[in-house]
Amino acid sequence: MIEVYGHGGDLETAAYTYGRRAGDFTDFSSNINPLGPQPGLMEGLTEALSTISRYPDPGHRQFKGALAEKLGLGESYLSIGNGAAETMALILLALQPGTVGIVEPCFSEYRALAEQFGSKVISVRGQAENNFHADPRDMEQLIRRSDLVFLGQPNNPNGVQYGIELLRQYARFAEQEGTFLVVDEAFIDFIVPESRHSLLNEISLYSRVILVRSMTKFYAIPGLRLGYGIAHPDIIRAMTNKQVTWSVNQLALVAGQICMAAPPSYEASTISLITEERRRLREGLGRLGCRTWAGEANFLLVRLPDGWTASQMQNELGQRGVLIRSCAMYPGLGEGDIRVAVKNMKDNSLLLREMQAVIGNGQQ
Q1: Three-state DSSP state, 43
Q2: Burial 258-286 (b: 16+ CB within 10 A, else e)
Q3: How far is C-alpha 359 from the geometric centre of its chain's CA atoms?
């Protein structure tokens, strides 16, 4: 297992494990825009290098202003963080929930952060036949029993959204029960705009709903770390009061400003590529005897053919220079479950060829 830190994208561990250089892998274990950073970003960062000799703006004002304009929100509704993970940590630090609810399988940081900050974690399970969604009755019980609930939208690792009416139902119920509902929208930018289900445009209606978004996946800047939270100004103030000064570095803020000015063609090309390649990759995996779920993000949850475990497949592919994410450790999933990123046609074809070779050789 190469997920020694609980996440994909750990190239250093992979390099040590498989005896290759970190840059020699084709990495399907992390879900980053296959187009790479938008045109002009690298040049903009190069021009900004001289600014690292001064402190970054602790109020994140220029980036926050550009973000507010793009989202159509007041700046008081926004909290800027060192990645979505810091944003989640600030939520927990600010709200101090005694009990945190999660719907498994889900992003491992929900549980890890909650336990790290002293919360008790309770959960309900989504079922495979229901795209790993929780039963609405179970969800309402989870909200009732929790001080704060995390919900992935679309969820990681299966990439499936909840419908907008169900989101509104959960948001209203959370308001009624005095529970905070944290909706993790880290991958929502990869979905065709008219198919996104988000409470963004009605966030002012809910005093206990917090949306969390990431800049690192869609804009391909995971090494810089940048994310943000959207919530009622009272929650944002409480989060800001818990944030370490200068936790968001200068180059990340510059990158954020540049990304806010991304040409529409970059965003449209990304979504078009992901939509087409996800379909093609899913069909190819099906021909190999794998089961996949109808995710809408830039990754797929995959159940390997009978007789194969995630560990076996990860090891065989790793020796061939291809990395995948084992999902065997996700509560609610099994030993044969993996997650693969949706990349470009060349890389996706490579993954399918290598998996076919491994399965065809019967190397179990």
Answers
A1: helix
A2: bbbebeeebbeebbebbbebbeebbebbe
A3: 29
Q: In the chain, which stretches have pLDDT less than 70?
A: 362-364
Whether pTM > 0.90 for this model: the answer is yes
CATH number of the CATH domain containing 157 = 3.40.640.10
User: Is residue 35 assigned to a domain?
Assistant: no
Asked if residue 148 and residue 185 are part of one domain, the reply reads yes
Residue at a domain's end among 207, 241, 260? 260
Instruction: Supply the range of the domain harboring residue 134.
Output: 41-260
**Which two three-digit tokens encode residue 27?**
């990495």
Q: Tell me which residue of 44, 89, 114, 73 sits closest to 247, measured CA to CA.
A: 89
Place of tokens 């490579």: 350
In a domain, 6, yes or no: no
In Å, how far are 130, 316, 320 from 323, measured between CA atoms? Answer: 28, 10, 9
Q: Is residue 238 located within the same domain as residue 315?
A: no
Distance, CA of 151 to CA of 143 (rounded, Å):
11
Q: How far apart are CA 57 and CA 73, in angstroms?
A: 21
Could you give the 3-state DSSP secondary structure of residue 278? Answer: helix
DSSP-derived letter for residue 337 is E
Tokens of 50: 């001289």
Q: Same domain, yes or no, for 79 and 188?
A: yes
Torsion of CA 84, 88, 13, 36, to 10 degrees: -10
d(CA 279, CA 137): 32
> Which of 94, 95, 150, 96 minimizes the C-alpha distance to 122?
150
User: What does the block give as tokens for 258?
Assistant: 């540049």
